[in-house]
Amino acid sequence: MERSLSLITIFLVLALSGRCSCDVNLFSRNDFPEGFAFGSATSAYQWEGAVSEDGKKPSIWDTFLHPRNLENGDIACDGYHKYKEDVQLMVETGLDAFRFSISWSRLIPDGRGLVNPKGLQFYNNFIQELVSHGIEPHVTLYHYDHPQYIEDDYGGWINRRIIEDFTAYADVCFREFGSRVKFWTTINEANVFTIGGYNDGTTPPGRCSSPGRNCSSGNSSTEPYIVGHNLLLAHASVSRLYKQKYKERQRGSVGFSLFTIGFTPSTSSKDDINAILRAKDFFLGWMLEPLIFGDYPDEMKRTVGSRLPVFSEGESEQVKGSSDFIGIIHYLAAYVTNIKFKPSLSGNPDFFSDMGYAVAPWAMESVLEYIKQSYGNPPVYILENGRPMKQDLQLQKKDTPRIEYLHAYIGAVLKSVRNGSNTRGYFVWSFMDLYELLRGYEFSFGLYSVNFSDPHLKRSPKASAHWYSAFLKGNTTFLASQGITKLQSDFFSSAS
Ligand SMILES: *[C@@H]1O[C@H](CO)[C@@H](O)[C@H](O)[C@H]1NC(C)=O
Ligand SMILES: *[C@@H]1O[C@H](CO)[C@@H](O)[C@H](O)[C@H]1NC(C)=O
Ligand SMILES: *[C@@H]1O[C@H](CO)[C@@H](O)[C@H](O)[C@H]1NC(C)=O
Ligand SMILES: *[C@@H]1O[C@H](CO)[C@@H](O)[C@H](O)[C@H]1NC(C)=O
Ligand SMILES: *[C@@H]1O[C@H](CO)[C@@H](O)[C@H](O)[C@H]1NC(C)=O
């Protein structure tokens, strides 16, 4: 990874992009195809809290954060106890769908073997609460948080043994929840998880060997590729299990999710344009080519050589076509310049920093267009998109920049859909303020604020919650009263 990406440096976009061919002016949710799902999202570690309650054992997040004395998700939003209240807020907001993840170490505390009955009951209750209120659950099986036990036992994702354990865990989920859950994402942001956890060591399990990093073990030259490979094989194994054992009866679908960046070259030089192709191959093609075509991109094979695992013929067949949909996590646009001897973007711990969160809806369009054209237009769900702001309860109440961001990006999705993209759903990250992975509680993306100093963790709607709700309910009175119409035409005229 570091060798090839050392040739690429990417500058996150800091200013409003000037690129916009603005033929969508005003739009409403009725302009989206029938059945297009609008939702919002959280994940287990970031929302549930109840870190060691009712039989839950540590995940790699707990063991990574506790000794470092960092802010953590021990309590988070206490969704474990407050889920009914939160579903009520989802209903008031008018969400069609809700995306959340299951904590593997709550359901099967040692990663394999016995199911924890209290964990099972919690997810049964939560899913029932959603479904009985007409909210479609979109479940992620793995949002970075595997049980510490299997990390200690055999090294977690660097060992192929995890494929069997992950498949058995998925089997429990399909069996217990599959009558009510139709949308399953196996792995969250597989590319970013792999880079953070095994190349940079900045996220759990914190493995790396790059100079200047501080990991006690790992190998940045080989492990990112091994882990990426095992994630793909584990996904394919789960997908096959679903097809063989559940799909006919449950009629759901199983997808895989990736972090995407809208890349654009800094200049029109040939070097920069080639750098974009390489960035796309490394960032997306790494996982998408195997899922769609059954093998890694040629560019990657050439660059990484023998460090890149090889799919056997049988594995290639199993991985190819194993994703019923592609889940897209999208926040950022980036300018790419071909530079030698610079550290990679992907290694850059500022990757998630708020500075990249400019309104650059063209980036979303370019990602969707690229997936359409290069990968045969598979069904796509945008599983995360949103804008962070400093966590300040007063300031956050009127979070106009977030409204502007969401509005512009939903407009970009509409443009892509109108141009043939097979995108079928859009989820705002996040439904409420929560523990942001490694960023703690300083910045937040929520439509609802959470008062983390309040023992009751009171939730309150921000302006963006009212706005999203009005959009979903087609309340033009509200949109007009918030100056949204004006905001939109200002945005488009300044951008065009
Ligand atoms: C590196 O890690 C060790 C062990 O966790 C810790 O004691 C040390 O302070 C760290 N050094 C830096 C520069 O982060
Ligand atoms: C990483 O693994 C490769 C291949 O096994 C080996 O050549 C290299 O020395 C290892 N690097 C470290 C830092 O252990
Ligand atoms: C719209 O789709 C066509 C056909 O795939 C493509 O050639 C064109 O570039 C797309 N337009 C935009 C703005 O992406
Ligand atoms: C948050 O909760 C604390 C403790 O209950 C309270 O003192 C404070 O006023 C609350 N803040 C807001 C903005 O409601
Ligand atoms: C629509 O928004 C207006 C203005 O905020 C509000 O008074 C009204 O109750 C809303 N209507 C519905 C159906 O939610």
UniProtKB/TrEMBL annotation:
Record's keyword annotation contains Nuclease: no
Root EC class: hydrolase
Family listed: Belongs to the glycosyl hydrolase 1 family.
Provenance organism: Eutrema salsugineum
Catalysed reaction equations from the record: Hydrolysis of terminal, non-reducing beta-D-glucosyl residues with release of beta-D-glucose
Molecular function per GO: beta-glucosidase activity
EC nos: 3.2.1.21
Keywords: Disulfide bond, Glycoprotein, Glycosidase, Hydrolase, Signal
Name this protein carries in UniProt: beta-glucosidase
InterPro entries reported in the protein's UniProt record: GH, GH_1_N_CS, Glyco_hydro_1
GO biological process, one term: carbohydrate metabolic process
Signal peptide bounds: 1-22
